[in-house]
C-alpha cells in the first residue's frame, strides 16, 4: 500500500507545475514512516476493542453475579465487638449452597470466653465446614451462631471476618512490604510490629533480609517461617477470637512447638478454636470437639475423653 501511495505522489509531482525536488523528497520520507504509523494505529484500535470487551465482561459479571451479602445483614456491631469471645452454637445446620445438602447438622455447643477448644475428626467430618460457618462462608440453613450474644446472621460478612483472627493451613503472605503484610490496615506502630515479630522469633530474620520495608516477594521464607509471620499478624489483630484451621499441619516440630507456645502464652485471654491433625497439639486444651459426618459426637475435657472408649481416644490411639 505504501508503494502505491509513493508511486501516486511521484506521478502527481511530475504532472504538477511548481513542485520542487525538496518538497518531493520530504513527501517520500514521510511516506516511508507511514507504514509504522498505520501499524501503531491498528494496534491501538485492537487494544481499544479488547479493553471495551473487558469492560463489558466486568459489567456483566457485576450485574449477573449474586451478591454475597444479604439485605438483612445490616447490623453493624460495636467497635470493640466481640469484646469477650463467647460463642454459642444453637442447632446449627449449614450447607455450601442454598437448599444444598447439609454439611453440618444440629450442632449445639457453648464456648466460654477464653476457652481453648480443640476440634478434631476424620477426613470429611465437617471440621473446616464448622470454621467456615463461623465466618459465614457457608450458608446457615438452620439454627444460629451467637458471638457475645449477637447473632451473626444480621452482621455484614466483611465486618464479621475482619473482627475475627483466622489462620488457615496454607500461609497467606500478602504482596507488598513486610509492614503491609503484617499490618494491612496500618493500625499498629513500628514498635508493636517489632514486638509481634520478636514474640514468634522472626524479628532477626526479617531484619537480616531488609527489615519491615522489604518486599515480601524479595524475602524468601520457609513454610514454617511464613506461618510464624501469619501468627505475628494474628498477634497484631487484637481480636478476642482466634481460629486456626490446621495451621500447624506440615510444619517441623520446632516451628509447631513455637506456635503452640505463642498461642498458649499470648492468647491466654482469647477464645481459641484450633482444628488439629496432630492431636498432641490440643492435648492440654480446655475442651475437645469431635465431629463425625457433620455431627458433634463428643464434647468434653481431653482427660475425660481419653479415660473412656471414645472417638477422640480412637483417633489418639491411631496416632500413637
TrEMBL record:
One of its GO terms (molecular function) is ATP hydrolysis activity. Keywords: ATP-binding, Membrane, Nucleotide-binding, Transmembrane, Transmembrane helix, Transport. One of its GO terms (cellular component) is membrane. It is found in: Membrane. Residues 87-318 form the ABC transporter domain. Residues 65-84 are annotated as: Disordered. It is a multi-pass membrane protein. SUPFAM superfamilies: P-loop containing nucleoside triphosphate hydrolases (SSF52540). PROSITE patterns: ABC_TRANSPORTER_2 (PS50893). This is ABC transporter domain-containing protein. It comes from Bionectria ochroleuca.
Amino acid at each position: 500500500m505504501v508503494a502505491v501511495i509513493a508511486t501516486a505522489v511521484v506521478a502527481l509531482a511530475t504532472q504538477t507545475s511548481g513542485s520542487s525536488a525538496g518538497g518531493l523528497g520530504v513527501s517520500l520520507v514521510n511516506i516511508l514512516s507511514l507504514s509504522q504509523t498505520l501499524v501503531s494505529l491498528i494496534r491501538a484500535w485492537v487494544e481499544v476493542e479488547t479493553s471495551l470487551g473487558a469492560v463489558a465482561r466486568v459489567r456483566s459479571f457485576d450485574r449477573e453475579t449474586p451478591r454475597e451479602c444479604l439485605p438483612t445483614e445490616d447490623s453493624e456491631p460495636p467497635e470493640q465487638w466481640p469484646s469477650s469471645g463467647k460463642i454459642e452454637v444453637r442447632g446449627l445446620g449449614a450447607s455450601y449452597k442454598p437448599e444444598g445438602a447439609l454439611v453440618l447438622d444440629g450442632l449445639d455447643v457453648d464456648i466460654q470466653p477464653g476457652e481453648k477448644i480443640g476440634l478434631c475428626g476424620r477426613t470429611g467430618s465437617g471440621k473446616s465446614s464448622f470454621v467456615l460457618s463461623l465466618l459465614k462462608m457457608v450458608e446457615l440453613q438452620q439454627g444460629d451462631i451467637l458471638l457475645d450474644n449477637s447473632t451473626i446472621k444480621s452482621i455484614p460478612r466483611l465486618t464479621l471476618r475482619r473482627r475475627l483472627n483466622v489462620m488457615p493451613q496454607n500461609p497467606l503472605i500478602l504482596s507488598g512490604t513486610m509492614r503491609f503484610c503484617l499490618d494491612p490496615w496500618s493500625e499498629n506502630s513500628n514498635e508493636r510490629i517489632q514486638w509481634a515479630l520478636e514474640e514468634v522469633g522472626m524479628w532477626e530474620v526479617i531484619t537480616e533480609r531488609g527489615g519491615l520495608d522489604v518486599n515480601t516477594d524479595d524475602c524468601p521464607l520457609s513454610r514454617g517461617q511464613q506461618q510464624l509471620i501469619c501468627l505475628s499478624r494474628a498477634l497484631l489483630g487484637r481480636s478476642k477470637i482466634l481460629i486456626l484451621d490446621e495451621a500447624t499441619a506440615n510444619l517441623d516440630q520446632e516451628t509447631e512447638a513455637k506456635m503452640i507456645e505463642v498461642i498458649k502464652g499470648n492468647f491466654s485471654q482469647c477464645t481459641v478454636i484450633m482444628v488439629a491433625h496432630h492431636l498432641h497439639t490440643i492435648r492440654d486444651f480446655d475442651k475437645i470437639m469431635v465431629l463425625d459426618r457433620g455431627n458433634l459426637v463428643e464434647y468434653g475435657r481431653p482427660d475425660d475423653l481419653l479415660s473412656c472408649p471414645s472417638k477422640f481416644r480412637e483417633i489418639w490411639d491411631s496416632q500413637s
